[in-house]
């Protein structure tokens, strides 16, 4: 994006042109020199904007699923939403997170490699406090976790993976499992320092505690499914025909669906005063003649015409005409 000049820089430039300190040709020369930009190969962009946009959609869905999951488990108000999605070198990501935090190393079976879900201690301990019956207050003692704390927090983190797998079902059937939990990012070498990773930051609020959760997705892990992260692939999948098995299952489910069918004898309009005076033996005249076919309603919509009658001592109706559309409809 082009640099935006401040008002002071604009005034200085106009003053230099007015006084003759800088002519128009020199200004054009400087402008042409600015077209050469410095490129940092350490920050190589390996994900397209389309792929970043679809990753953002996946994790917006994950945030909604996780909000529902944790709200039910913690019995507290939980709000989670995507704050940012960006691609950075892994080394830069490690420097951006706290030196002591909860790092869940996840193996995203069947994908190769590992992904990382980092949970800020404020959020983790607020979850821990709610599970034990507290108000969701946070405290910081991550450097000295007891065995009970580790077990409870591990169970909470494990329950978050089901929502993660569900959010990814549009791209791949994933079965993520927790490999281990670390607390110091400098002791964890997930990928090489210069490897490009996508970092999804989730703004999280539990009771009165707020903080961030981050998800680190290395390029090497997503490389084999990158073609599925394009809008073209998603639209193609949506337009694709159903398989034979899916079609048979769909037909079976549709055929078992129940519909309400009603034959309407006729209608009448009366005033409220007439309605209140109705009594036993009164007759209400309908707008339907006795020799006219009846309207047959399916799901509240007129679909057929029919003639009333009796079959085996039971009231029945014979369909005489289809109202509009084809027979299949």
Automatic annotation (TrEMBL):
It is found in: Bacterial flagellum basal body; Cell membrane. It is a peripheral membrane protein. Signal peptide: none annotated. InterPro entries: CheC-like_sf (IPR028976), Flag_FliM (IPR001689), FliN-like_C (IPR001543), SpoA-like_sf (IPR036429). The keyword Amino-acid biosynthesis does not apply. Residues 253-323 form the Flagellar motor switch protein FliN-like C-terminal domain. Keywords: Bacterial flagellum, Cell membrane, Cell projection, Chemotaxis, Cilium, Flagellar rotation, Flagellum, Membrane. GO terms for cellular component: bacterial-type flagellum basal body; plasma membrane. Gene3D superfamilies: CheC-like, SpoA-like. One of its GO terms (biological process) is bacterial-type flagellum-dependent swarming motility. The keyword Ribonucleoprotein does not apply. Pfam families: FliM (PF02154), FliMN_C (PF01052). One of its GO terms (molecular function) is cytoskeletal motor activity. Belongs to the FliM family. This is Flagellar motor switch protein FliM. It comes from Shouchella clausii (Alkalihalobacillus clausii).
